[in-house]
Each structure stands twice: as C-alpha cells, then as structure tokens.
Amino acid sequence: MNDVVLSVENLHVHYGNIHAVKGISLHVKKGQIVTLIGANGAGKSTTLKAIMNLVKKSSGKVIFNGNDITKLPTHEIVLAGISLVPEGRRIFPNLTVYENLMMAAYSRKNKDEIEKDLEFVFSLFPRLKERLKQPGGTLSGGEQQMLALARGLMSRPKLLMLDEPSLGLAPLLVKEVFDVIKKIREEGVTVLLIEQNALGALKIADYGYVLETGRIVLEDEAVKLLNNEGVKKAYLGIA
C-alpha cells in the first residue's frame, strides 16, 4: 500500500441528529484521479470537508502519506500537502486575480518556486494572465472557476480535492475544466474529484466510488463503472 496517498477509514460524520456520513472507507493512490459520484445529499462534500477538518468527525481515521492527520487543524493539513477547491468557487471578489493566487501561497518562502508555479497555472489558464489586475468578482463564472482551480494549485499540493468543479458551467467550459484536471494529474498531482457530472468524471478518472445516503455502495475502476448497468441507469442517464 506504499502508493496510497490518502486513506480514509470508517469515517462517520453527524450534523446534529443527522448521520451524514456512515462509515466511509476509501483510498487514493499516487498519480490517480479518483472520483466520488452520487446524488445530492449523498455525503460527498461532507467527506471532503471532514478530511480537511472543516467539519467535525464523529469517528474514523484519515491517513495522508503515511501520517495520521485525523485531528490536525485545517491550516496544517494544507501545509502537509492537501488543497481543497470548494464548491461555489469561494474566491475573494474584491481582490485581484493576482492577489487571489498569492493568498494561497502565503505560507511559502521560495519566491523562485512561487514564480514557477504562477507560470504553470498561467500555462493551464492563459485567460487569468490577461486578467491579472482585475478583481476576482468581475470575472465570468467560468473564469472564476479557473481562478479557484489555479488558487488550489498555488499551495503546491500533493493531493488536490475538487468539489463540483464543473457546476453551473456551459458545456464547452465543462470540457475545458476536465481537460485541465487531466493536465494537473500529468504534472504529478493526485486528484480526488467530486462531480454530479458522473459521466464526465468517470471518463477522466482511474477509479470511482458511488455514494448513496452516506455510504459507499459500489467501487471499481472507472472504466468498469462506466459500463455498469446500474450506474448507467442511476447516474449516467443511459437506459
């Protein structure tokens, strides 16, 4: 299991009386794109937030690169090498594109490396370079999503977790986002992806987990899930 970057073991999360995540266990291997698919309210976002310690775990364990990070505060989890791009983009609307990107590099000291990473994100998102001095709030929805992804990369993560990156985007931009996720993986960043666009996610992923009401009901190689009759019917809109 040396190639496992992230291991979530028997994770439970409650919101008051609601048992949102019910004993989820999953593994993400180095260099993979792993996707969690499932209906709204299945517990996908809660799982990512629990990994980051943004919501309290009732029980369970999170191991990252062989270290137990279950109880680490969120900022230390970021420093350890995990970055979360949350649903809804959450960029700083009044800060410029450049300032938004630099906010994610606040803990880094090596200016040359920061410059190198800026060039990398501009190679992925040329439009951001053109809009460097624009306030984030003046960008289009698609550009804001690109900024959120770019900002996620500026902390130089070993694992990038993406929560619904294609939500609300036009079909052409959705394809662009998925293409970028593949490029990010090619650069050696491991990706854990949550998507309601299950078809798009499974097409780029190596492995997938299907969540229903807080439980994993199915897991397999993504290509096998794409051809699974139950998955086709329930999540891919293919009868």
What descriptors fit this protein?
about 240 residues; alpha/beta; Rossmann fold; four-stranded antiparallel β-sheet
Notes on the protein architecture:
This protein has 239 residues and is an alpha/beta fold. It has a domain of 129 residues: P-loop containing nucleotide triphosphate hydrolases (Rossmann fold). Helix content is 37%, strand content 27%. It has 10 helices and 10 strands. A 6-stranded mixed beta sheet has the order 6-7-8-3-9-10, with helices on both faces. Strands 2-1-4-5 form a 4-stranded antiparallel beta sheet, with helices on one face. The chain is globular, with a radius of gyration of 17 Å.
Please tell me the CATH architecture of the domain at 1-81 and 192-239 by its name: 3-Layer(aba) Sandwich
CATH class descriptor name of the domain at 1-81 and 192-239? Alpha Beta
CATH homologous superfamily classification of the domain at 1-81 and 192-239 = P-loop containing nucleotide triphosphate hydrolases
Number of strands: 10
Q: What is the residue-mean pLDDT, rounded to a whole number? A: 91
Radius of gyration: 17 Å
Beta-strand content bin: 25-35%
Spatial ordering of strands, largest sheet: 6-7-8-3-9-10
In DSSP terms (H or I, runs of 4 or more residues), the helix count works out at 10
| CATH-derived topology of the domain at 1-81 and 192-239 | Rossmann fold
Largest sheet: 6 strands, mixed
What sort of overall outline do the alpha carbons produce when their principal axes are compared? globular
**Topology as H/E string?**
EEEHEEHEHHHHEHEHEEHH
Please state the structural category: alpha/beta
- Which runs of at least 5 residues are low in confidence (pLDDT < 50)? none
Helix coverage percent of residues?
Answer: 25-40%
Quote the distance from N terminus to C terminus: 37 Å
